[in-house]
Amino acid sequence: MKKLLLGIVLFSSTASFAQVKNDPAAKAILDGVSAKFKTYSTVDASFTYKVENGSGKALSNKTGTVKLKGTKYRVSFNGQEIFSDGKTVWNYDKAAKEVTISNVETKNSTITPQKLFTNFYDKDFLYGLNGEKKIGGKTIQEIEMTPTDKSKPFFKVYVQVDKVAKSIYSTKVLENAGNRYTYTISTMKTNKPIPDTEFTFDKKKYPGVEEVDLR
């Protein structure tokens, strides 16, 4: 789950990469993405998810969707759906026919899709700008991020930003165990009406599903 959220929504390996302070150019790009995201009343996006081993061999390719509205979110991915109305989280496992219910954690360290599109980076990472490249006609800026907490299960994150749209294009997470997880935004619609019912688990629509209430 944390791998998935770290990817949606969301750095130079040279000696010049800042280990004490962050790159102002990279910060300006990330601040721009964060500021623009905060102007959206809703987000409805689809993404692809690729898993590779340490040698770059593809292990799986999947797709998913994410909907955001204020503090509410809904993520659909690989037989799993996560609903949150800002107060409660429902984690539905389709194969197990089970939904786990819990309260939303209020800790600042809790990862949500919204945080991955905003200023999650300032306290948790050192980051630097790797440069620009063209992908499918888009100018993509790549930022290399290194977690300040070395106990994290990953040691590097690469965030690619669409320079013109000021939005995240893809996020690549390198795990200590060797696997690499890449999330690429396929489509993104903003400010479209999304009813609040989209962010709650309606038991009537999922007959036979066992509820595990952890609240």
Report the helical percentage: 10-25%
Q: Ranges with pLDDT <50 over ≥5 residues?
A: 2-20
Rough outline? globular
- Please, what is the CATH homologous superfamily? Lipoprotein localisation LolA/LolB/LppX
Q: How is the CATH topology named?
A: outer membrane lipoprotein receptor (LolB), chain A
CATH secondary-structure class: Mainly Beta
Describe the structure in brief:
By secondary structure, the protein is mostly beta strands. The protein contains 4 helices and 12 strands; from the N terminus they run ααββββββααββββββ.
What is this structure's SSE topology?
Layout: H1 2-7, H2 24-37, E1 42-52, E2 58-69, E3 72-77, E4 80-84, E5 88-93, E6 98-103, H3 113-116, H4 121-124, E7 125-135, E8 138-147, E9 154-162, E10 167-175, E11 180-190, E12 210-213
Parallel strand pairs: 6-12
Antiparallel strand pairs: 1-2, 1-11, 2-3, 3-4, 4-5, 5-6, 7-8, 8-9, 9-10, 10-11
Question: Could you explain the architecture of this structure?
Answer:
13% of the residues lie in helices and 47% in strands. The chain has four helices and twelve strands. The chain is globular and about 50 Å long. It has 215 residues and is mostly beta strands. It has a twelve-stranded mixed β-sheet. It has helices at residues 2-7, 24-37, 113-116, 121-124, and strands spanning 42-52, 58-69, 72-77, 80-84, 88-93, 98-103, 125-135, 138-147, 154-162, 167-175, 180-190, 210-213. 32% of the residues are buried. Residues 2-20 have low confidence and may be disordered. It has a single domain (2-10, 19-213), classed as Clam (outer membrane lipoprotein receptor (LolB), chain A), CATH 2.50.20.10.
